[in-house]
Predict the structure.
Amino acid sequence: MTDSRQVQTRAAPSAGWILYDGGCGFCFRWVHFWQDVVERRGFALKDLQTAAADGTLRTPSESLLDDIRVLTSGGEVKSGADAYLYVTRRIWWAWPFYAVFSLPGFNWALWRGYRWFNRNRYRISRYCEIPKR
């Protein structure tokens, strides 16, 4: 008898992978907070470190943790704010976020805010430690 959860984790997700920094407590907490919502839309979660190690994502190691990424079922990689837009477009009640922040001026503001937060996430989140250099 096969456990259906094991089969489900081995199969490729229908919408794609949401790839996040598994070493960042903030990222881990928030991605898993939304896990049920995104899994119902066909996404699966995987940390970037595992995705790079198992070959799911091919990216240079020096830029691996730069952004959250979505690896679509078609093999396309969306990163940063575009990853959020890609996912919110598939959630009916989050679609207005997608519609507004896809507009040029709003998209610029979303990317600017994303970049600022991403650069400073180790300083502003009690869940994410400053990496040791």
Summary: The CA atoms of residues 91 and 105 lie 23 Å apart.
